[in-house]
Structure formats: C-alpha cells, structure tokens
Design a protein that fits this description.
Number of domains: 2
Number of helices: 7
Largest sheet: 5 strands, parallel
CATH superfamily of the largest domain: Tetrapyrrole methylase, C-terminal domain
Strand order of the largest sheet: 3-2-4-1-5
Order of helices and strands: EHEHEHEHEHEEHEHEEEEE
Bound molecules: S-adenosyl-L-homocysteine
Structural class: alpha/beta
Strand content: 25-35%
Distance between the termini: 61 Å
Number of strands: 13
Radius of gyration: 19 Å
Helix content: 25-40%
CATH class of the largest domain: Alpha Beta
C-alpha cells in the first residue's frame, strides 16, 4: 500500500510561526526530509520522527527520495522554509509524483512566507497590490526578471524581493534597484528584513536611493514601497485609500 506525502512550509524559522496543521502533519509523519538548515530549525520541537537532511541544489534527488519512501507505505513530509509553494519544493514534488505514474496522495500545507513575515516586522507595507520577485537567475532567465521588474514598476506595485543577493550573485541587485529608480522616486521607502523570526533578526527601513549601500544577503527580504508608501512612527505603511 502506498503512503502519503505532505509538502510543508515551516514558516520563517521560529516555532511560534509554524501553523498547527504543519506541526501536526510533521509529528504524524514517519520521516521528514528537507534541506539541512530547515531540518535543524524544526529539530528542537519535533520528537520521535526520523529527520533526514539533504544538501542544497539537490532538490530533484530529494523529491525522488521522498517518492521512494512514500512507495514503501510510509508517511513522509517534505519541508521548505516559508511557504513550500513560493520558491519552494511544492511544484517540483508534484511534477515528480505525476511523472512516476503512481497515485500517492499528496497534501500541500501552507506556511508563512518571507514577504508576510517581513511585512509584519516592517509595519504594513503590503496593504495594497504587491508582487513577489526572486532575483535569482539560476532557473529564470535574467532578461525575464528585468522585464517583470519593469512591469511591476509600471503598475506602481509594492515589491517583495526574494533571493536579492548571494556571495556569487551581486550584480543583479544593483541592476534591479537602478531599473526601479527609472520609475520610482529615490526617497521611496525600502524595508530590509534579515533572518525574520530567527535569532539574528534585523529590521531596518531605508530608501531606494540608499539601499545599495546597505548590507543585503541571501537571508534578506527587501520590501520596495510604491508611490503610496510612507514611514509612519518608524513603520512602513502603504496607504490603501481609506478616508477618515
Ligand atoms: N519558500 C520561502 C522562500 C524561499 S527563497 C518562503 O516562502 O519564504 C529564499 C529567500 O527567501 C531568501 O533568499 C530570502 O530572500 C527569503 N527568506 C526566507 N526566509 C527568510 C527569513 N527568515 N527572513 C528573511 N528572508 C527570508
């Protein structure tokens, strides 16, 4: 008999931000599989479940492994940080199950994504229409990312930037911000959130003109305001148009 696969988003890091359904599903699994950093984050509060960590950039192997475990009749959870359906493991896992031709049950459990964690820590910058953009061009061509930035800017969207910069990928952020400056004013507020809901959490607010002078890395989410975003009492707020 086939087992079951849960695809779970474990939120930004802290246990208090893992939804109860995710906790219950993980606790009811025989095995939990995920990238090492995320397995280490859940290790303190998951008991008596086998935890299997795997390396970065091994996503397809990880999904095949999960499928093989489920085929033996076990319940297995595949975890991603934030929401597994937002730059996470949900899509590739569903593709691999489909390709295998098995009828294994798959359930996707949502999580709190970096955009909403960062939004809450900054105030209320995502109050109106916003987009998420990943600046990683490992799997999306860079020309398409730039096109999407320009499209978002021409619609005056607030933007949550995932994967803004890594040790080897530095130029992309510079090009992205300079592209935004062609559309948005230099004093547009920009929120910088590092390690949201984790031990080394850092939150600050700067401007589009200044953000390239700030320390941004792969643990950072940037929230770029739009023409309606202000800093009010130290919080970043996008007006939604209420009259009062
Ligand atoms: N599935 C995840 C995103 C994975 S992409 C989610 O829904 O949140 C990885 C990127 O997410 C990082 O480069 C960073 O930009 C962002 N991110 C993930 N966790 C974060 C955290 N705790 N604090 C700030 N940014 C985070």
């Amino acid at each position: 008999m086939n087992g079951k696969i849960y695809i779970i988003g474990t939120g930004p890091g802290d246990k208090d931000f893992v939804i109860p359904k995710a906790l219950i599903s993980m606790q009811n699994s025989d095995i939990i599989v995920g990238y090492k950093t995320y397995i280490d984050l859940i290790r303190p509060f998951i008991t008596d479940v086998e935890l299997v960590s795997s390396g970065m950039k091994k996503e397809v192997d990880r999904c095949s492994e999960v499928l093989e475990i489920a085929k033996t009749g076990k319940t297995v959870s595949l975890i991603s940080s934030g929401d597994a359906g937002i730059y996470g493991m949900a899509g590739i896992m569903l593709e691999i199950v489909e390709k295998s031709g098995t009828d294994i049950e798959v359930e996707v459990v949502p999580g709190i994504s970096a955009a909403t964690s960062a939004g809450a820590l900054l105030g209320a910058p995502l109050m109106n229409d916003f987009v998420t953009l990943s600046l990683s061009d490992l799997m999306t061509p860079w020309e398409l990312i730039v096109k999407r930035i320009k499209t978002a800017c021409s619609g005056d969207f607030v933007m949550a930037l995932y994967n803004p910069k890594s040790k080897t990928r530095v130029k992309q952020l510079e090009i992205a911000i300079n592209t935004m400056l062609e559309y948005y004013k230099g004093d547009t507020p920009v929120g910088i959130v590092k390690h949201a809901m984790r031990e080394k959490q850092e939150v600050s607010i700067t401007t589009l003109d200044d953000v390239l002078n700030q320390d941004v890395d792969m643990f950072t989410t940037l929230v770029i305001g739009n023409s309606q975003t202000r800093v009010i009492n130290g919080k970043m707020v996008t007006k939604r148009g209420y009259t009062y």
